[in-house]
Fold sam-dependent methyltransferase superfamily protein.
Amino acid sequence: MPNSMALDIKSFETIIPSRFLSFTIPNPALPTHLLRVAVLDNPIQLNESPQVAALFVPQNREPDWIFSTESGHLQLLLSSPGISRLILIGSNPISGSDSSPLTYHKRDNAQYVKSLENSVKPLFFALSPKVSVQDGIFDVPILDYEDNLICSVVLERCVGVFVCEMLVEDIEIESDSELREFRRRLRFKRMPNLVQTEIRIVPQKVFELDRVKIGGEVKFRPDTKVLVHSYLIPMVASLSLIGSCIEDRFRKGLKPKALCLGVGGGALLSFLRTELGFEVFGVEMDEEVLRVARQYFGLEDCEIHVSVGDAIEYVEKLAGRDRVLVSGEDNGDFYLNHANGFGAKFDVIMVDLDSCDARNGVIAPPLEFVKKHILSAARSVLSDFGIFVMNVIPPTRLFYDTLIHEFQEIFHELYEIDVGNGENFVLIAKVSPVASPLVNVRIVFFRN
């Protein structure tokens, strides 16, 4: 809502499902800043007396899409059971007062929040439904936003043709060990609460740890030897199902082949190539994402063949033609050819594709992938012992059950892994002799 428009306080007396309003007022704690106030009503009409809650945006994380977009605000609201209205309070610099990059430090945040709490209590009263205060007893609980960030700084914001706005950020996270843990993340605005890619980073030069800080003079480099995204670990671990066959490839002087549908920052592709010795092929829809992956996530240091295009169409073409032209790296174009002795058959296909809906959140894979003919096409380009591995974030139980059914119709063995983070599942389908009995195994994956 523009600042020039007068607010009608009476408009806040009732809950209107999905209503979103934002405005700015002077910041009593920082004269060079304004307070951005955002109010969102729950899209679901709750039967009980409406409960209002407030959340102070961590200082210097105000531009974060989790806090600055309506979709991020909605996910915060939906993750707070029983809340009918969520008020976000964040500090924005007055235009022209400060153009330096924002660096977040958790240690500075508690004092900042304390300095604001008392001064904004009358505002909470004014923004609450009439029924919430009619008994004369009024209290708005202050929610804590908890994550493992110690500090963070944005390295670049850019726009892709398909993924739209995205950013790269360096962070330090809390660690269970005495060693400090630094990460680099790729995030998309259309999925503000999701980390698209996360890798470990280490200082380019040796420094004493107390001299190293995010946003300082120390330069970091990607460490592609370690996977830190929780669901990638069981995806790679699935290769143990065909370990003896992979070893046989190496003994014959051949590299096993992996096809990765969805590249993102390229953490999975880099690990397969540098640590496991695979010949890796990737398909990514957005060329700007690949530019970011090469510049910030170490993808350019690996011999990985990447095609820009639609992953589903790529699989269909690969299944239906004797050879497929794939956009090559600097060494020009290359072909996958059935006549080359190894053929266009892959030992593993790994799918890490997603889509996003403002109401349902992240869905993986996209609905378009949950079709029998797509899975059949993928099976047709796998070797006789190959496996098909997919990251799944199901929006509903029906979605997940449908996906399981489609897998069982096409593949002979199916393994389900619950990653244990309350979000991701990994499905592993194996191409097996028809004479073998049908296998469906469910595994729960626990992380320390």
